[in-house]
Amino acid sequence: MSLEITPELLIKAYAIGVFPMAEDATATELLWFDPLMRGVLPLDGLHIPRSLRKTVRQQVFDVSVDRDFDGLIRLCAESAPDRPRTWINAQILDLFGTLHRQGYAHSVEVRLEGQLVGGLYGVALGGAFYGESMVSRVADASKVALVHLVARLRAGGFTLLDTQFVTDHLSRLGAIEIPREEYKARLAEALRHRADFYCAGVEEELASLLTQSSTHTS
After folding, report:
1. What is the pLDDT of residues 47-98, one digit of tens each?
2. Which residues span the domain enclosing 67?
3. How many domains does the chain have?
């Protein structure tokens, strides 16, 4: 008899570093993952290429937080020419919608001319933010969302940004892999912190991020 996966069980799983994924969008069951090597993006190690800094500074996109969580996660679940299969099934949509209403799951939405074109979502627990999925329907949309997320996490007192795995895309932005044991230690420390996702000072932190990044080679 399989264990029913509830929002409460999900939070307990995240607290010990385990996360769920479906095999694909049509799957009726979820699989649990606890990778030997874990992806993280150090909050002081975000690399913002020159062209991306320009896009963020010029406010090409309208960026919001938790304005349309359901719309954003559905966008992440949709197939696209560059991503014909996704791991977000109906159960994920339902569970994370509930987590959002409970105050655990958050989205960063990116719009262009009023249309939702990208963003990301994840779970906040203590001083840890677990990134779940990023999506772009136009160039740089998910990258802009990530820059804004890092600024918010830094301003709010978070200490850990979990990316689960490291893709080439995330690696170019500063994500690294660490062993499971090291990740669990960092997670335990992060969970002892109190952080605020809806903090003040995000714009100031964003400006600081852009300035710091400009001192590095792009």
Report:
1. 999 999 999 999 999 999 999 999 999 999 998 766 667 889 999 999 999 9
2. 34-84+104-213
3. 1
Domain membership flag for residue 93: no
CA atoms within 13 A on the CB side of 82: 6
Tokens representing 25 are 């969008």
pLDDT tens track for 164-189 = 999 998 999 999 999 999 999 999 99
Domain contains 153: yes
| Beta strands across the sheet bearing 160-164 | 62-65, 105-112, 115-125, 128-136, 160-164, 37-40, 176-179
207: CATH: 3.40.630.70
The model's pTM is 0.94
User: Residue 75 domain-assigned?
Assistant: yes
- Which long-range contacts (C-beta less than 8 Å, at least 24 apart) are formed by 47-52? 47/172, 47/173, 47/174, 47/213, 47/216, 48/147, 48/173, 48/209, 48/210, 48/213, 48/218, 49/172, 49/218, 50/214, 50/218, 51/140, 51/218, 52/140, 52/143, 52/144, 52/147
